[in-house]
Structures are given as structure tokens and as C-alpha cells.
Amino acid sequence: xxxxxLTVVRRPRPLRLRRWGAALIVSACAGWASAxxxxxxxxxxxxxxxxxxxxxxxxxxxxxxxxRYRAYTGTLVVxxxxxxxxxxxxxxxxxxxxxxxxxxxTGAPRTTMRRNNxxxxxxPETRKAVVEKRESLGMFPDLVRTPKNVIPQFYGSREIGAQxxxxxxxxxxxxxxxxxxRFGYRVWSEQKSGLVVKLQTLDSRGRVLEQVAFSELQxxxxxxxxxxxxxxxxxxxxxxxxxxxxKTTPQAEGWRLKETVPGFASMxxxxxxxxxxxxxxxxxxxxxxxxxxxSVSLFVEPFxxxxxxxxxxxxLGATYSVSRRVGDHWVTAxxxxxxxxxxxxxxxxxxxx
Length: 353
Fold this sequence. Notes:
Elements: H1 21-24, H2 35-43, H3 56-69, E1 72-80, E2 83-93, E3 98-104, E4 111-115, E5 118-123, E6 128-133, H4 151-154, E7 155-165, E8 168-177, E9 184-190, E10 196-202, E11 208-219, H5 225-233, E12 239-241, E13 245-247, E14 255-257, E15 265-272, E16 285-290, E17 295-302, E18 312-316, E19 319-326, E20 329-335, H6 339-348, E21 349-351
Parallel strand pairs: 6-12
Antiparallel strand pairs: 1-2, 1-11, 2-3, 3-4, 4-5, 5-6, 7-8, 8-9, 9-10, 10-11, 13-15, 14-21, 15-16, 16-17, 17-20, 18-19, 19-20
């Protein structure tokens, strides 16, 4: 899951480096896992479930902290069905400041540089450099923005053994949901540091929807923060684009949820490319929710018969989308959650009278 955070009110794109995104590599009990998943786990690689020595919060906190204090370089490969993408990542952090460079190795050339929440994406083919600030960095897990004590209400953990990934011995742990509103995860956490080196997103039957893994990884690599800072500032030959973004509230834009989805808290709400004369509720809006691991974005914009087709669902790997018309507006719910969860969000969104 890497550099992919859905950017405010850009049409949803299936950019799959989001959760691991530039930030993390760039989201404890027994008896709750489903039988099909337990059967698959015990038959994959011969790894038998082990007694849990860490709670789900212990595991997630360790994974989260690992990315804050380790420098590394590596090649990250994302697979989903027959689709595959790869990127080269340089990451450095001193505990307070994180910097990262992510260079796509497949598809259209693109390099993303990040310093904390400041992000600039260089697109060589268009000679554009898009500058943004992102509140959500797409980290797995997104513990900075969600109370950790909430996560055990909706997820549990189970240790299932150890395997080597990219030459590093990693603990294997499953983080699985307690209800039908979210997916589960199988995570490989490097034993010495806790860094996530491989991640699978699992559906309710334990099937792998998407996999993100390092094919090669150098821990404690000599990554220069100063050099990355210079590269980030060097926009010579590029047209610098700074999309207009305004922080707001759903209520101010005339929207609300008549029914909440358990575990998902409102994280942020923004509109983009609107001026002061635009009436409330008419500027394209993105409303973001998270349960600490999974996120959902609600995109709302005025209905346009030329651009908006039939209501329906779409899927790419672990990312699903649901679209529907609400009065004079078009609503698209996007997230790495089951389609029924997105349907509940989309059906619950309504205009404030």
C-alpha cells in the first residue's frame, strides 16, 4: 500500500503507494479469526499460530516507531492480481523530521519528495511540480491521528511465525477485524527494528487482495537529509503548481452523516479550487475518515451529466469506490475497505436542510 494519500478533491486515483507511502516504508486476543483465514494461514509456508506476546497496540506502536528513527533505502513492489508497480525509496528521519524520496520505476515517470507534511511531486513528462500539504501521510498504521486505545475495539492480533523478506528476518503477525466493516492485514515486521517490510491486505475469507513488499532493503543506509532537502527545493525547469485548498467542516459546506460507521472518526475536511463567491456546498469537497488503519474519503462535487455516468462500484486491488447521485451532487466514496462499508457512508451522506 504505499505513496498513496488520496489528495483533496482530485478525482480518486488508484495510486497504490499510499499507506506505506513515503512515510512508512508510504495503515491481541484469540478466538475471533474466521475459520477460512486460520486454515489458509496454517497452510501457507507451514507457519503455525504462536501464543501472542504483544497486544495489537504493541505491534502497531512498534511498527510506527520504526519508521521514525531508521534510515533506509529499498525497492518496493506492489502487486494486485496481474497488475504490478515498483518504486525506489530513500527514507531518513531524526525522530522529529522525516524526509523521503519516492521514484516510480514503472508507468509514467514521477518522483515524490516529502518533508513531514510538505509534499512535492515532480512529473518530468509534463514538466510540472505539484506542491501540497497533507495532513494524512498515509502511514501504516496511522496512529498519530487516531487514539490507539480505539483500535483494539475493532482489531485483534495473532503471531503466526517468522520469514525472511528481502534478506531480513521478519516476524509475521495478522491484524484482523472484529466486524465486517474493514479488511484484515498480514504484516511482516523486521525483527530487530520493527519496520514493516511486507504487507498483505486480506478480505473476509483470508484471500490476498493486495501485497506490498520490499524486494531489496538496506537498513541504516547513509541517506543524507541535506541532500534530499536540496533536491526537494530544486524546481528549475518545472512549472510549480500549488492547488488551492481550504480547510472547512462538512457542516459549513451543508453536509452531514445521518448514520455513522462504527470505528471511523472524522479526520479532516477540505475544499479545493473554490473562491469566496462560491456558495456553500458547491465547491468540490473531500471528507476523510479513519479507524487508525483503514481510511475512507467522501468526494462531493456538483453533478455534471457530461462527466458522471451511472451509479455503481469499482475496484482495484484493495481499493474500492462507490458512486451515487445525491440531489444535484455526485458523491464518490473511496477507501481500502469492503464495498458495503463505502455503501453505508455514501447512503448516510445527506444535505443539511
